């Protein structure tokens, strides 16, 4: 109750200042008068009574000030006063203010942008329900030696059958699908997924349904789920899209559902999901990644231990195919952005350091400027202002400066975030999670207030400590800043240089690492500049009008391609492969084709280290001049 | 002390001062500089209410009255 009363009374004072003042004045005056009257009645002569009472009461102004200080509204009122005063001071020295604000804008803006990126990528909850339980499973074995290697259908089935730690498991494989039929042919990014895929991710359909258990059985029909964007673009967004039969990669498939806007998994632009048919014929090809939802309370470590057991069983049951097989399990977040974490955190530390340098810089500038305000401070102190009040006012000015800089910095951050999302330099699928929203605003507010206090506190305390005598003397404009100021400024300069040096060294080391990376030996003896690569995709194939129904048709086509290319001027060697060194596609499976005739091997597919499936050209890992890459 | 004084009857500032001196047998010398802030603090805390009345000498003065909470707090 009393808090309420206090609040109301304070408001009254703020808004009816005149009346409250008048009342206070009247009350005090009445008090004095009645005291005087008392004394007169007691026999004291009037003059003495008045004088004595006045002496006792003391300064009326100070009394009133003390009474006013009781209310909370006083603090607010004085803060408001300080803000207005601070704004006036800022305008009075535009040059200084501009420099400070610009510096702060750059420093705070960079921090806001990087924070937005770090938070968005590493910490903001993903749009999947209970994402902490979603984990990715890979296969890591020799000779592929890919720590995030793919599984084959057979591996998935073995894993599914032996799994105990996951509530549900699924497999998916990214692919491109060509849609033909009524409308113009179109190629979309898509994925082949097993039945539990959508339920693991919690992706719900906005029309129709998604896959359910049984949809991936070996003998079932072709089914697809499409994205809302594809639905609008190609099927007019009508309800009749469900049940429609379309041509996907020359096969007929039925649309069973549409999935809404939002994160497309496994990639942002995935528009079509087709059901995988779990048919185990051989131990390959290795196209799939495993994904699953862990049981509640299951830890990653336990999951790893158990899943690796399954891996060992697989290895034992298929000797010769795998060696040193492990099945790594990692959380979804880690898979998506885990590799970036060290780099991101380092960037964050770097921009924080930059802001620190800016802060120290401005503190120095403020100290230098404090000498010109010595007189002002001295006058105020001599009139009875509390030192604390002076410090409060100076700090308010500093925070005002940094808040203004922060506002300008937010503009910069906005541009930065926009650019990050547009360019997506690290090709992160989570780029859309980086947004300028409340979290960034809150962070910016916090960091700018902190910066303001940080660079303001030392100059404020120095100023309020001021010597009263010297500045008040005649001609006291105070040329010298006093030894106290000098030492503080020297310390600040040293700090600034130290921080800048640290940043410079770190930047230099990073640049050097980057340059070395460019020169990494890729394994080719030929200068990379002389090797040209081209990709042959179904789209280009379609243009040639060739039918790809038989293996021989494909082979003869490629032979023709190699022949024509080798006849181009300047071409020394031609080869065809399904991946380039170092492995770019990630689709590890290759048909090993013995030279010179092409033969699809019926046995398990394996990739021989350092070999490219190629013909006739060079089987070693060095080749010159154009190679054509065919997607397996 | 103020609460105790006002328990008897509502008073205005000066009266409170005098009364405190009386009650404490002159041990407490009340000075205005501490009296008025204290009065306002008590009022903000809800232990006192105030209203303007006419004094004996037909002057306007602010009277302080013990509120129900104040009565309880005085104990």
**How many structurally independent domains of chain A?**
4
Q: Identify the strand order in the major beta sheet of chain B.
A: 1-3-2
Question: For the residues shown, what is the average pLDDT of chain A?
Answer: 78
Number of helices of chain A: 19
Major pleated sheet of chain A: 6 strands, mixed, barrel
Hey, roughly how much beta strand do the residues of chain A contain?
Answer: 5-15%
CATH architectural name of chain B: Orthogonal Bundle
Stretches with pLDDT under 50, minimum 5 residues of chain B: none
Counted beta strands of chain A: 15
CATH superfamily of chain B: Winged helix-like DNA-binding domain superfamily/Winged helix DNA-binding domain
Report, as a whole number of angstroms, the end-to-end distance of chain A: 77 Å
Tell the overall outline of chain A: elongated
Q: Calculate the terminal CA-CA distance of chain B, rounded to whole Å.
A: 12 Å
Strand order of the largest sheet of chain A: 3-4-9-6-8-7
- Bulk shape of chain B: globular
For the record, the count of structural domains of chain B works out to 1
**Multimeric state of these chains?**
heterodimer
């Amino acid at each position: 109750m009393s808090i309420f009363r206090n609040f109301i009374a304070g408001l009254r004072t703020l808004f009816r200042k005149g009346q409250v003042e008048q009342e206070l004045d009247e009350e005090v005056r009445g008090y004095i008068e009645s005291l005087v009257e008392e004394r007169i009645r007691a026999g004291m002569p009037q003059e003495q009574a008045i004088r004595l009472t006045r002496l006792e009461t003391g300064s009326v102004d100070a009394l009133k000030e003390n009474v006013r200080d009781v209310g909370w509204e006083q603090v607010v009122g004085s803060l408001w006063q300080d803000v207005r005063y601070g704004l006036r001071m800022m305008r009075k020295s535009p040059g200084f203010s501009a420099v400070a604000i610009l510096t702060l804008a750059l420093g705070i803006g960079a921090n806001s942008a990087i924070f937005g990126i770090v938070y968005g990528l590493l910490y903001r909850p993903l749009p999947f329900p209970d994402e902490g339980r979603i984990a990715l499973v890979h296969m890591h074995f020799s000779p592929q030696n890919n720590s995030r290697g793919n599984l084959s259908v057979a591996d998935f089935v073995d894993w599914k059958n032996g799994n105990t730690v996951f509530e549900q498991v699924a497999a998916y494989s990214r692919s491109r699908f060509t849609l033909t039929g009524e409308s113009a042919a179109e190629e979309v990014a898509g994925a082949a997924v097993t039945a539990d895929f959508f339920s693991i991710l919690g992706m719900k359909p906005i029309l129709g349904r998604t896959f359910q258990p049984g949809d991936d059985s070996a003998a079932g029909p072709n089914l697809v789920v499409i994205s809302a964007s594809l639905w609008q673009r190609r099927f007019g967004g009508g309800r009749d899209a469900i049940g429609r039969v379309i041509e996907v990669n020359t096969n007929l498939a039925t649309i069973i559902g549409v999935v809404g806007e939002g994160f497309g998994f496994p990639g942002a632009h995935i528009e079509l999901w087709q059901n995988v048919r779990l048919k185990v014929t051989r131990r390959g090809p290795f196209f799939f990644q495993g994904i699953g939802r862990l049981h509640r309370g299951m830890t990653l470590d336990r999951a790893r231990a158990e899943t690796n057991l399954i891996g060992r069983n697989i290895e034992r049951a298929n000797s010769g195919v795998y060696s040193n097989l492990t099945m790594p399990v990692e959380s979804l977040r880690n898979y998506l952005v885990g590799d970036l974490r060290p780099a991101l955190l380092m960037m964050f530390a770097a921009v924080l350091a930059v802001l620190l340098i800016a802060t120290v810089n401005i503190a120095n500038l403020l100290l230098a400027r404090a000498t010109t305000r010595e007189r002002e401070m001295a006058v105020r102190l001599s009139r009875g202002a509390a030192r604390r009040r002076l410090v409060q006012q100076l700090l308010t000015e500093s925070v005002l400066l940094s808040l203004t800089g922060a506002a300008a910095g937010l503009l910069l951050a906005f541009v930065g975030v926009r650019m990050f999302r547009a360019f997506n330099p690290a090709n992160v699928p989570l780029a859309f999670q980086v947004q300028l929203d409340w979290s960034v605003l809150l962070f910016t507010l916090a960091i700018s207030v902190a910066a303001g206090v940080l660079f303001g506190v030392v100059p404020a305390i120095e100023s309020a400590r001021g010597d009263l005598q010297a500045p008040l003397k005649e001609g006291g404009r105070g040329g010298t800043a006093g030894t106290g100021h000098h030492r503080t400024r020297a310390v600040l300069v040293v700090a600034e240089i130290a921080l800048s040096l640290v940043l410079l060294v770190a930047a230099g080391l990073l640049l050097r690492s980057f340059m070395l990376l460019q020169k990494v030996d890729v394994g080719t003896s030929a200068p990379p500049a002389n090797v040209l690569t081209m990709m042959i995709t179904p789209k280009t194939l379609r243009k040639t009008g060739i039918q790809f129904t038989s293996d021989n048709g494909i082979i003869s086509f490629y032979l023709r391609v190699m022949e024509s290319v080798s006849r181009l001027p300047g071409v020394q060697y031609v080869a065809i492969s399904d991946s380039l060194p170092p492995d770019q596609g990630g689709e590890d499976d290759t048909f090993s084709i013995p030279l010179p005739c092409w033969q699809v091997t019926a046995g398990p597919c394996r990739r021989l280290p350092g070999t490219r499936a190629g013909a006739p050209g060079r089987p070693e890992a060095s080749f010159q001049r154009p190679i054509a890459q065919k997607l397996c | 002390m103020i609460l105790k004084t006002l328990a008897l009857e509502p008073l205005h500032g000066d009266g409170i001062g005098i009364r405190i001196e009386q009650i404490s047998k002159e041990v407490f010398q009340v000075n205005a500089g501490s009296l008025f802030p204290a009065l306002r603090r008590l009022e903000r805390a809800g232990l006192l209410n105030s209203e303007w009345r006419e004094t004996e000498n037909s002057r306007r003065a602010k009277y302080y009255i013990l509120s129900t909470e104040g009565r309880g707090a005085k104990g």
